[in-house]
């Protein structure tokens, strides 16, 4: 179903600001809760988003020493979330222990964040990484795969390469999705919904194109139509 391929980013300063969009749960499977909203509202927002009918995608990008991340995952998994992000830069031990902690919950899947969509090759060079974004994404994903991670966040510009590298068992999540003619804002590596699905993305994360639309429901349905068209094209021999 197309709605299984869409996550709405609840990038709002408060629960009160996010709540009017909860009706979109009839069209969208996942709601992504990021740092801004979680730091303001805490675990309460997870429960309310779940009660609204969404599957919760908690995007905290955990990155710390292995023991700290393991205990954080233990605590967060009790909230009944479906997807939880960690930074692959945390290394194989941190990732392995995060995966093991999540598996105990039976419901939470760890998602490895590779290279943020706000970064490009110039930014990587400033960080001391002298390789292309696609190469760095692949390197991190392969390392995380060996540590047991099976879901990844990558930009739509790297998703086709990562799909080829990891195969069909990987769950690939792409932010930076912008319908045609939409502004890119602070994300440098973006794509349309149709092209991201065609390149192998499983879940598209969309925020501002829905949130800032005059009619958020109509914007949602338009994106779902683009996803559906791309999925249909992929099934044609």
Query: For the record, what is the CATH homologous superfamily label?
Result: Aldolase class I
How do the SSEs run, as a string of H and E?
A: EHEHHEHEHEHHEHEHEHH
Biggest β-sheet strands, sense, barrel: 8 strands, parallel, barrel
Domain module count: 1
Number of helical elements: 11
How far apart lie the N and C ends? 19 Å
Please report the total strand number as a whole number: 8
Structural class: alpha/beta
Radius of gyration: 17 Å
Helix content: 40-55%
Q: Assign the CATH architecture.
A: Alpha-Beta Barrel
| Sequence of strands across the biggest β-sheet | 1-2-3-4-5-6-7-8
Indicate the CATH class: Alpha Beta
Summarize the SSE layout with pairings.
Elements (H helix, E strand, L loop, with lengths): L5 E4 L5 H4 L11 E4 L1 H7 L1 H9 L3 E8 L3 H12 L5 E5 L4 H14 L3 E5 L7 H6 L6 H14 L4 E3 L5 H8 L4 E4 L18 H6 L4 E4 L1 H4 L4 H20 L2
Parallel strand pairs: 1-2, 1-8, 2-3, 3-4, 4-5, 5-6, 6-7, 7-8
Helix pairs in contact: 4-5, 7-8
Provide the descriptors you would attach to this structure in a database record.
globular, 237 residues, 44% helix, 11 helices, alpha/beta, 16% strand, eight-stranded parallel barrel
